[in-house]
Amino acid sequence: MRVGRLSGVVPDAMRFCFDLVTEQTPLAGARLVIEEPDGQAHCRACGADFPLSDLILLCQCGSADVEVTAGRELAVASVEVV
Ligand SMILES: [Zn+2]
To answer: Residues within 5 Å of ion ligand 1 by Cβ?
Structure first.
């Protein structure tokens, strides 16, 4: 499971829901592995690429003309059935 830090999903809440949802199913006890890749942003003003750890879109050069290039992903990276 890949949850970008900027996707607005709280991994702890997701783990909790996953346990509830899988409780009465063959998936009970399945492990939810969550990756949290850091966000990445590109500044259109100065061309810098910099990491994003929160939703404050502001480049070090002071420009707010910033494009989020990574960190919004929310995807099932892999499902392993044993
Ligand atoms: Zn900049």
So the answer is: 43, 45-46, 48, 59, 61, 63
